[in-house]
Design a protein that fits this description.
alpha/beta, 5-stranded parallel beta sheet, 29% helix, globular, binds flavin-adenine dinucleotide
């Protein structure tokens, strides 16, 4: 008898598992249940469909049930919601929402990929018709129809995570004045404050009204518009509201079937993606796996891990022995002309888990400065103080951010150190990079810190430097005039530093800074080799001023 594999959920994880299962076994009987109308649709493309850069709805359908069925000979049942799992009998109960019939289906092995649903915060008025969430094609249709039909002039997006920012951009693309309401003091929670600050300033430049540190407290109707009250007492009147305040794993089936769940409600799986029932596997947004940096259980709601897990779960359901080692949570988002990307841990999570770390910030051009069109990028590396082992990276900038984060994600997953980044041989020709790629440069700087060739201070420390610390601005006068400077700093341009050493005091510690940290490093080396105590401001004045929301004058 051939094996009967039942898959619940037909999008990222479910459809991938089904296709993989068929490639592994021509004999298996494979049934895929999907509650909605579509399988294998591009949820990641939905914001761009709303904004218009994906013009045709049909392009969101990576494949159709009919095409999938004929290529993979999989029994696809859409509009079919699995209501319960009877683990003892190895059956699922299914409700066909089209025919209204309910029936049971047996399984030998089951793969769950039910995903996660948008969180609806319990605030008054949340079910108002002009409040939208975005997960499915029908959700995108509703938002698009509202924009096309009612021509809203203003919108509020609640939540400044990846989907929230994508929606902000796409609403602005549609000519809608948009306010972003975010409860945290910054957008993009996976990023540290100074990196998120770059994104925030880009959002403001594009006309987005940013209300940080303010949550949604109530919604009500006012003259056919939506009145949005914030928990800081503010009020905004708008024509539509998009809620993107996070997601909750769809765990109802697993929970009622008695499968073990993680504390936050995700389905517990082992490295082979098996749940607490050996015949049931689970993948995607609904599961918690292993954080490769922090060494703790984690839930990663991203399409990449869902796809990879699905392939492994399908293999294992069919008797193979593949392992999902875990995730470093690599993510990237476009915010207008900027790209923001992160991988591994950030300062918040490392501190929370009491993992010692050091951080370095560098600023590089996307390619050689003499070839036209280079765009700046800020790279932040987090690494172990003793070994330099890489723990996390964040990059915000223009062209080339995506390829650098992929290199760093690979390095982190491979357990590499800052010193290893120095040695990476990365593709170079002037239109693409520099002979020292931004990743190499980030490695040089981080490894200088690990080796003790440079001591740094971070932008956070500047305003509270201990007694005996003196700031020196190493830039040229015109740079200070254009970009501002840090109050109280001595001004000694790098090229005159050697001539002016006699003005300095060996009992003091000189905190040097330039635009991005390179001249600061040179000055640091001059000072310490002449017997002075010094530290370099990591990321220079650029990081300092960006973190503080603009030039300090
Ligand atoms: P899903 O893809 O959500 O699929 C779950 C399916 O299961 C759903 O269709 C649901 O209807 C079905 N289902 C649930 N319960 C049942 C049941 N009982 N019976 C039958 N069917 C059921 N990730 C990225 O990496 N990059 C991005 O740029 C990105 N952008 C995104 C943009 C948006 C707007 C959204 C919503 C998500 C985005 N994601 C992105 C996240 C990514 O889409 C998810 O991580 C991924 O789809 C998770 O796959 P999954 O199979 O776990 O869940």
């Amino acid at each position: 008898m051939s094996m009967k594999l039942v898959i619940i959920g037909g999008v990222a994880g479910g459809a991938t598992a089904a296709a993989r299962a068929r490639r592994v076994s021509e004999d298996a009987r494979i049934i895929l249940f999907e509650r909605g109308e579509f399988i294998s649709f591009a949820n990641c493309g939905l914001p761009y469909y709303v904004g218009g850069s994906i013009p045709e709805r049909g392009r969101l359908l990576v494949t159709t049930a009919a095409a999938f069925q004929s290529r993979y000979r999989i029994d696809i049942r859409t509009f079919s919601e699995v209501l319960s799992i009877d683990r003892a009998r190895k059956t699922v109960t299914v409700r066909n929402h089209a025919s209204k019939e309910t029936y049971t289906e047996t399984y030998d092995k089951l793969i769950l990929s039910p995903g996660a649903s948008p969180i609806m915060p319990p605030v008054p008025g949340i079910d108002h018709a002009k409040v939208f969430t975005l997960r499915t094609i029908p959700d995108a249709d509703r938002i698009k129809a509202c924009i096309d039909r009612e021509r809203p002039s203003s919108a509020v997006v609640v939540g400044g995570g990846f989907i929230g920012l994508e929606m902000v951009e796409n609403l602005i693309e549609r000519g809608i004045k948009t306010t972003l309401l975010e409860k945290l003091p910054q957008v993009l929670p996976p990023f540290d404050a100074e990196m998120a600050a770059i994104v925030q300033s880009a959002l403001r430049d594009k006309g987005v009204e940013l209300l940080l540190g303010q949550g949604l407290s109530a919604l009500s109707e006012q003259d056919n518009r939506l009145r949005v009250a914030t928990d800081s007492g503010g009020e905004i009147v708008c024509d539509m509201l998009i809620l993107s305040v996070g997601i909750r794993p769809e765990n109802a089936l697993a929970k009622t079937a008695g499968l073990e769940l993680c504390p936050a409600g995700h389905i517990q799986v082992d490295a082979s993606l098996r749940t607490s029932d050996p015949d049931i596997f689970a993948v995607g947004d609904a599961v918690c796996t292993h954080d490769l940096v922090l060494g703790i259980p984690t839930a990663t709601a991203l399409a990449g891990p869902a796809n990879k897990q699905a392939r492994i779960a399908a293999d294992n359901a069919l008797g193979r022995a593949e392992v999902f080692r875990g995730t470093v949570g690599t993510a990237v988002v476009k915010v207008f002309d900027l790209t923001a990307a992160s991988t591994g841990a950030n300062e918040k999570t490392l501190s929370e888990h009491k993992i010692p770390y050091l951080a370095s910030c560098t600023h590089s051009g996307s390619h050689a400065s003499y070839y036209p069109g280079a765009e700046p990028m800020a790279i932040k590396l987090l690494f172990a103080p003793d070994t330099g082992k890489l723990l996390g990276a964040q990059i915000v900038g223009g062209a080339g951010v995506d390829k650098r984060i992929d290199v760093l994600a690979t390095a982190i997953k491979a357990g590499m150190r800052a010193a290893d980044l120095e040695e990476l041989e990365l593709a170079y020709a002037p239109p693409y990079s520099s002979a020292k790629d931004p990743v190499n440069v980030a490695g040089y700087v981080a490894n200088n810190i690990v080796k003790g060739d440079m001591q740094i201070v971070t932008w956070r420390e500047i305003d509270n430097l201990p007694e005996g610390h003196v700031l020196i601005d190493l830039r040229e006068q015109k740079e200070l005039d254009m970009a501002g400077f840090i109050k109280g700093a001595l001004h000694i341009p790098l090229n005159s530093l050697r001539d002016r050493l006699s003005e300095l005091d060996r009992d003091k510690t000189y905190v040097v800074y330039c635009a991005v940290g390179l001249r600061g490093y040179i000055a640091y080396r001059i000072l310490v080799q002449h017997g002075y105590k010094a530290k370099n401001l990591s990321g220079g004045y650029t990081t300092y001023s960006l973190a503080r929301g603009g030039p300090a004058r």
